[in-house]
Design brief:
Blueprint lengths: L8 H25 L2 H31 L18 H18 L5 E10 L5 E9 L2 E10 L3 E4 L1 E4 L22 E6 L6 H15 L4 E6 L6 H16 L1 H14 L1 H7 L2 H14 L4 H26 L6 E4 L2 E2 L7 H9 L25
Parallel strand pairs: 6-7
Antiparallel strand pairs: 1-2, 2-3, 3-4, 4-5, 6-8, 8-9
Keywords: Membrane, Transmembrane, Transmembrane helix
Organism: Candidatus Iainarchaeum sp
InterPro entries: Thioredoxin-like_sf (IPR036249)
């Protein structure tokens, strides 16, 4: 790790100017390249991040004037030993988890790209924030080993109440509830959500109208192909689809997300279809003849309900602002869409969430 010297006031002013320049360019660039609907989401995130950066800069200056809140580690000659590589990696993960959990909505992801350490015992993290797979902000944030310097000096070990999201549109109740999970075929947080959703669907598919909408292929042709395969299975063998969806996370995803090849996706998907009793030849024939149309219909459906990130959940035509990504969480959301919940809604499912933070 490169040690960065920050011993003069001039250095801190340079960081402030850099962050301000990035902040100023960000909003105008996004407005010129996105639709009106996307602008609203991007601007909301932009202003949140701008506040984050400005608060960080103000607090960093005040923090440095008052001196570090924890001792600097030195050797016998007084040289700063700083933190080890392992300590830096642990702190990086801790800051990422804290910001993502407590400071940003689920559809927005904060990630640290690099770390510099000063003689004052302060770390500077360069970061990116993404929404729907697109970078919406880049900048720097500061921390000591235990304190995040952002808006105020925040104790990273202190538990706080999660931010309460604004109330969303009310879901209309129907005689037969309808649920749609929107994902990309190989989206890292979307595929674990599919795994949990399939568990809930296995219990509720006979009493509710359930679907998976694979609406984007940002990872390339192998994802395009998977999107079409899952759309075709749902059309030809909807009952068996949930077995495929459940096992995709363990049988196909970990293999083909590494190779990122169409060949791997085809081979492993065929194996999985055969495993759960799906006619792979019929599915692939439908992909060949109607795959483009099936995929286009899913893209159009996402546009109709205002979905732009994976995973997203729509109940009875209303997109939820947030939802619990466990099997039991999906069951609860689906069952909330009934006028009179069926007996199957009383079944208890797993409340353990497969790691699926953030979104594509």
């Amino acid at each position: 790790m490169t040690t960065k010297k920050k011993t003069t006031h001039k250095t801190h002013k340079t960081h402030k100017a850099k962050a301000h320049e990035k902040k100023s360019q960000h909003v105008s660039d996004k407005i010129s390249t996105t639709s009106l609907t996307e602008n609203i989401a991007v601007l909301a995130v932009a202003f949140l991040v701008i506040g984050l950066i400005v608060g960080s800069l103000i607090s960093y200056g005040a923090f440095m004037m008052n001196g570090p809140v924890e001792p600097i580690i030195t050797d016998e000659q007084g040289a700063n030993l700083g933190a080890s590589a392992a300590e830096v990696d642990a702190l990086k993960l801790k800051v990422e988890e804290y910001v993502n959990t407590n400071m940003l909505p689920p559809e927005v992801t904060f990630a640290i790209n690099g770390v510099d350490q000063s003689d004052e015992g302060v770390f500077e993290f360069s970061y990116t924030i993404t929404q729907a797979g697109e970078v919406v902000e880049e900048g720097e944030i500061h921390s000591t080993k235990t304190k995040l310097i952002i808006g105020a000096v925040v104790d990273l070990d202190e538990e706080i109440e999660p931010l309460t999201p604004p109330a969303g549109a009310e879901v209309e109740k129907l005689e037969v509830a309808e649920a749609e999970l929107f994902i990309w075929g190989y989206c890292p947080p979307g595929v674990p959500a599919l795994d949990a959703y399939a568990d809930a669907a296995a219990e509720l598919a006979s009493v509710a109208n359930l679907k998976v909408v694979l609406f984007h292929d940002g990872h390339g042709p192998y994802e395009t192909q998977q999107n079409k395969i899952q759309a075709a299975i749902q059309q030809l063998e909807p009952e068996k689809y949930w077995g495929y969806a459940k096992d995709f996370y363990e049988d196909v995803y970990p293999i083909c997300v590494q190779s990122k090849s169409v060949e791997c996706d085809l081979e492993e998907s065929t194996k999985l279809m055969e495993k759960v009793g799906i006619d792979a030849d019929a599915v692939l024939a439908l992909v060949e003849s109607e795959g483009d149309a099936l995929y286009a219909a899913d893209v159009q459906r996402a546009a109709e309900v205002g979905v732009s990130s994976s995973p997203s959940l729509v109940i009875n035509g209303t997109k939820l602002d947030s939802f619990n990504r466990t099997a039991d969480g999906f069951k609860t959301e689906i069952c909330s869409g009934f006028i009179n919940a069926p007996e199957a809604c009383g079944i208890e499912l797993s409340a353990v969430e497969t790691k699926s933070t953030g979104s594509c």
